[in-house]
Amino acid sequence: MDLNTVWFILITVLFTGFFVLEGFDFGVGILLPILGKDDTERRMVINTIGPVWDANEVWMLTAGGAMFAAFPMWYATMFSGFYLALVLMLVALIMRGVSFEFRSKNRQPRWRSFWDWSIFLGSLLPALLWGVALGNLLQGVPIDAQQNYVGDFFSLLSPFTLLTGVYTVALATLHGAVFLSGKLGGELADRARQTAWRAWLITVPLAVVTIIGLDLATDIIARLGVVPGVVPLTGLTALLAAGWFIRNKHDGWAFASTAIAIAFAIVTVFMTLYPRVMISSLNPDWSLTIYNASSTPYTLSVMTVVALIFVPIVLMYQGWTYYTFRKRITRQTIES
Q: Is residue 119 part of a domain?
């Protein structure tokens, strides 16, 4: 296994961690103004991700930094082609981060309602845009022989990519609802569990439609053999199992199931791309790969040493954070 493949795998791991962790962040933000019936309940919902949401976003920054250093042509083509979408996503994430801080600066209901809906939009829009981006990676985008993106913003929008965007929003909402049912206490936890069940009833049919779209719009089915095909099937099985766990109030297992479903979906995307990193819809020979888009072997070697030192430290710190803030949040906790 060469260093190009090693770094492709590492970037896959980073994006997988981002979608699993930031996925329930997005879901919690989407459900905030829906689940919270009063200010105390909305504060309970926010506090479930208060200690971790910004650390979860670091996975995206790290993945982008690794992409820039290991595969600069991939970074350049993707960020120039997806420029407007990424700017919209960045504005939404900034809005969400600011909303967490500004919401409690004033007790007026209108003030807090404005920032609550800002959190909603700042969570919904990135989830949608990330789904559209993944759909484009699978379907292919207009890239010429010089590895330049030659389309525009509307070239990224197609029935298939919009479908993947909607599915990502549904899956994130389900993931967030399951997370809330395990982190909250009392009546709000029951309400979150009921919301998770409704979200599951919507997400499963969307998953089936998305799989059909994958077969019609991409080469993912053709590239998956019997053994690699176990990965998406495992993810789909975990998604189906989540419904049973939700109905039987096994919150921890339900969260693990949705996390597996998301993780295996992202792994399937990258596994199908390999060794490509961006597919050219104009000519398959013009696609970017881990070889024609990579940095020099020396750069990859230095990065590997740095990653071996610091990645375990980051993982231990984030694990400690989740362990420290593992307790359920109740109305009494907020009021006290």
A: yes
Is 250 domain-assigned? no
pLDDT tens track for 266-288: 999 999 898 999 999 898 899 99
Q: Which one, of 248, 314, 319, 311, lies nearest residue 10 by Cα?
A: 311
- pLDDT tens digits for 93-118? 999 999 998 988 888 989 999 999 99
Domain that holds residue 93: 3-176+264-335
Rounded to an integer, what distance in angstroms lies between the CA atom of residue 267 and that of residue 254?
20
Distance CA 103, CA 42 (A): 11
Number of domains in the chain: 1
Does the pTM surpass 0.85? The reply is yes
The reply to whether 15 falls in a domain is yes
Looking at per-residue pLDDT, the higher value among 220 and 277 belongs to 277
Looking at the domain assignment, is residue 197 inside a domain?
A: no
